[in-house]
Amino acid sequence: MPIIEVQGLAKHYRVYRKPPGWKASLKGLFHRDYNLIEAVKDVSFNIQRGEMVAFLGPNGAGKTTTLKILSGLIYPTSGTVSVLGYVPWERDNAYRRRFSLVMGQKNQLWWDLPAQDSFILHREIYGIEASQFQRRVDELTDLLEVRKLVGQPVRELSLGERMRMELIAALLHSPEVLLLDEPTIGLDVVSQRRVQGFLRHYQEQQQMTVLLTSHYMKDVEVLCRRAIIINEGEIKHDGPLAEIVDRFSSVKQIQLQFAGVDIPADLERYGKIVERMPPRVKIEVPRQDIPKVLAALLDRYTIEDVGVQERPLEDAIAELFARQRPATNAQ
Amino acid sequence: MPSSLRIKWCILRTCIEERLVYRADFAFATLIRFLPIITQVFLWGAIYDASGPHSSKIINSYTYGDMVAYSLLVMLGRAFSSMPGLTTGIARDIRDGSIKKFLIQPIDILDYLFWHRVAHKIVYYVMACVPFALVFWLCRDYFRGWPDAWTLAGGCVLLLIAFLIGFLIESLMGLCAFWFLEVSSLVFVYMLCSYLLSGHMLPLDWLPSPYSDWIRLLPFKYLAFVPAAVFLQKYNHAQLAVEVELGIAWVMILYLLNRLTLARGLRRYSAYGG
Prior knowledge:
Distance between the termini of chain A: 39 Å
Low-confidence stretches of chain B: none
Low-confidence stretches of chain A: 327-331
Number of strands of chain B: 2
Shape of chain B: globular
Number of helices of chain A: 11
Largest interface: A-B, 34 and 26 residues
Strand order of the largest sheet of chain A: 5-6-7-3-8-9
Strand content of chain B: under 5%
CATH superfamily of the largest domain in chain A: P-loop containing nucleotide triphosphate hydrolases
Largest sheet of chain B: 2 strands, antiparallel
Strand order of the largest sheet of chain B: 1-2
Oligomer: heterodimer
Helix content of chain B: over 70%
Strand content of chain A: 25-35%
CATH architecture of the largest domain in chain A: 3-Layer(aba) Sandwich
CATH topology of the largest domain in chain A: Rossmann fold
Number of domains of chain B: 1
Structural class of chain B: mainly alpha
Helix content of chain A: 25-40%
Order of helices and strands of chain A: EHEEHEHEHHHEHEHEEHEEEHEH
Number of domains of chain A: 2
Structural class of chain A: alpha/beta
Mean pLDDT of chain B: 89
Shape of chain A: globular
C-alpha cells in the first residue's frame, strides 16, 4: 500500500494584478483585478514506503505547492491526499509526529540560541525518550560532522552548517516521511556533497520515504531512482530517472579527440558544438543521425578517440521545459 | 510531569534563554519604560498646580496624590497587559512564512505564543522589579495605605486578567494578517484607542455618562483602569467580584475569537515565502 497517495490534486490562487504606475495604485484602493493562478492542476501519484522520489520542475511549476499540501500547510482546492493514512491539512498531531518538512533557507532553529537548545525543544515537542534522543543527536551530528558546533548560536553558523543542523532537527523524531524542498540550495559544492551523502546513507538505513525537490540535478542523480516531473501544475513524467533522457532528449553527444592540437573548422555541419577544448570537442547530434554522422567523421578526419554518450540529465530536463514553454505562451 | 506541561515548560525555558541573549538592549528598553511615568508625574503636578497648591486641589474626586498613585498603578497594569511586538511579530511570521515551522510541528501556535509571551514578561519583571520597587517606595506617601487581603488578592487576579486580555487582543489582531498581511495601521488604531479606553490617559471615572457607561462595557478597561482602581480601593468586595467575573468572561470570549480566527485564517493561508 502506498505511503503517499495523491489523486486529482488541484490548488488555485487568486492573485492581485496591479498595472504599473501610481494611478493604478490609487485605483487599486477602490477596485482590484485578480488573476486566477492554477498552481497545481489534476496531479496524481503514489509513493511506496522506502522510496526516494525526485519531484522536478522549473520555478513556479507547482512543486513547492504540492509539498505544502502534503505537509498540511495549505488546503487544496480539490483532490484527495493521504500520507501515512492521514489527510495532511487536518493537521492531526499523530501525523505531524510522523513526518518532517525541510525547506532550504527556511530556518526552523532558534536563531539566537545554539542548535542544541532547539534540539531539546524538539525532544519535548515530539516526546523523544532522553536516552534515544542523545543517541540520535550523537549519531546525526557525527554523520553530518557538526558535533563541535551544536553549542554555537545558530546565527554564527555558515549556511552549510545551518542546513545540516536543520536536517538534524528534522530527523530527530525519526520521521517516516521526509519532504525536502531544495535542501542544498545556496550551499557550496563540499556542503552539497556532504548533505547528499548523508541523505543517501540515512535513507537507506532508515528506509524513510522521501520526496525531494531540487534544481541541482546532482542531488537527484545521486539520491533518486524515480522522478516525477511537473510543469505548469501538471505531471509530465512519472517513472525511472534513467528514462527521462531517453524519453525527452532528442539528441546524443559525440565526444571526439583529434590527432594534433587543432579542431577542424567545419564541424558545425554535423551538429551543434557544445564544448570545444582542443584537441577535444563535443557535438550534439539528433539520435537517428548518430551512425551516419559518426561514419562521416571517422571517414573524413584523423580521430584518436571517440565516444557517444547521453546528454546530461540537466540538459535533457532543460530541453523538456523549454519545449513546453512556447506552447504554453502561445495559449 | 505530563508531556503537555513538559512542552510548555520547555518552551518557557527556551524563550527565557532567548530573551536573555540581547541583555544590554533588553535592560535599556526596560529602564527607558520608566521615563513616561516621570513625565506624567510632572504633567499632573503642573495641572494641579495651575489652580492652587497640590494638597487642597481635587479634580473629579482625585487629589494630586491619588493621581500619582493612579499613574503608578496604571504603569503596573500596563506592565502586565502591554504586549510589545506581539501583533507585528505574528503578522511578520505569516507574511514571510516563518509561521510554517509551528504548523508542521505537533504544537499549538497560540499555546506557543502564550508561553513565549509569559517568558518575555518574566524576564521583564525580573529586570524591572528593583526600579519598580524604588519608584513605588519614593512615591509611597501618595498611597492611602495597603488594601485588605481580599482586595489585594482580587487586584492580583485582575493583573493576570489584564495580561490575558492584552495577549488575546493583540494576538487576535496579529491573526488578522491572514487576511490583510500588513496590520501596522490596525496596531496604531488599537494603541490610540486603548490609550483612552483602558484608562491609561485619564481615569475612566472622569469621563461623563453615557460615554463612561459604554466604555465600561468594553474589555479595554481591564488593561489598566480596573487593576489600578482596585488597588486604590475604589471597589467594594461585591463590585470587585463582578469585575473579576466579567474579566474572565472577556478572556473566554477573546479566546474563542482567537481560535475561530486562527482556524479560518489557516484555511485561507497560502504559506507565503517559498
